[in-house]
From TrEMBL:
The UniProt record lists the keyword Transferase: yes
InterPro entries linked to this entry: C-di-AMP_synthase (IPR014046), CdaA (IPR034701), CdaA_N (IPR045585), DisA (IPR050338), DNA_integrity_DisA_N_sf (IPR036888), DNA_integrity_scan_DisA_N (IPR003390)
Keywords noted in UniProt: ATP-binding, Cell membrane, Membrane, Nucleotide-binding, Nucleotidyltransferase, Transferase, Transmembrane, Transmembrane helix
Reactions that this protein is recorded to catalyse: 2 ATP = 3',3'-c-di-AMP + 2 diphosphate
HAMAP family recorded: DacA (MF_01499)
Organism: [Ruminococcus] torques
Residue spans crossing the bilayer: 26-43, 50-68
Domain of life according to the entry: Bacteria
Keyword Zinc-finger: no
Biological classification of the source: Bacteria, Bacillati, Bacillota, Clostridia, Lachnospirales
General function of this protein: Catalyzes the condensation of 2 ATP molecules into cyclic di-AMP (c-di-AMP), a second messenger used to regulate differing processes in different bacteria.
The protein's assembly and partners: Probably a homodimer.
Full protein name: Diadenylate cyclase
Amino acid sequence: MIEWIQNFIRNYSNGMYFPHIQIKDIIEILIVTIIVYEIMLWIKNTKAWMLLRGMLMLGGFILLAWLFQMNTILYLAKESINVLAIAAIVVFQPELRRALEKLGEKNLFSNINPFDKNKENQRFSDETLDSIVRACYAMGSVCTGALIVVEQVIQLTEYEMTGIELDCKVSSQVLINIFEHNTPLHDGAVIIRGDRITSATCYLPLSDNMTISKDLGTRHRAALGMSEVCDALVIVVSEETGLVSVASGGRLLRAINAEELRSQLSQIQYRKTETKNKFSIRKGWHRS
């Protein structure tokens, strides 16, 4: 039996090249596999997936033209390849920017740097957390609409510039007063950095996700849109129903209670838990 196996291998291995695999080759294969896997996940979770499908259909059409020797179409495709490459970069610009931002959020070197003392610091205090929760449900009880953006790693300077600078300490009274009906600052979003309200009446990008519920208004679409372009946690109080919702990572958790909101804020409160929280937050997105 053993001799038969040896003969089989000898007969079918003649003329075949078996490369000598070293440890560095295995490491390279693993790195490339991880990169391809992350790119596939990134494409699947963004609008780039639909764009990629369109490009694949275009590539299939060109392949058919090559099989049937449609020379005119092949000539046009060959001459326009450089323009298409530039067009792809322009079309994918928001997704490419977000991917680079996500790469910058990893903080690999800061996590292993023993001299980085800021990683143990809180983003905001327990007092700020309690003030946000109290304000949201106080406003929800009287159906006062609100939109609160809690900044994490990515600074939201470009969105702060669209509003009015405040630079005041976070408190439930201030938040309630800002969003009170018919006040100068009630329209738009509030941005919170640490324990400070940096700006109010800020304009946020609206989500163009066509799968979200038609029942959602402009505030919820703005919260989703903001969560799609940055890592901020966005809190929405509905003016129609008084329900509180949270958006993060392009996903919306609707009609949460005070304990759930407190849990979501607690997960981003400490800088040292950024990597862990990216996964723990997503576990809660079972409702939409």
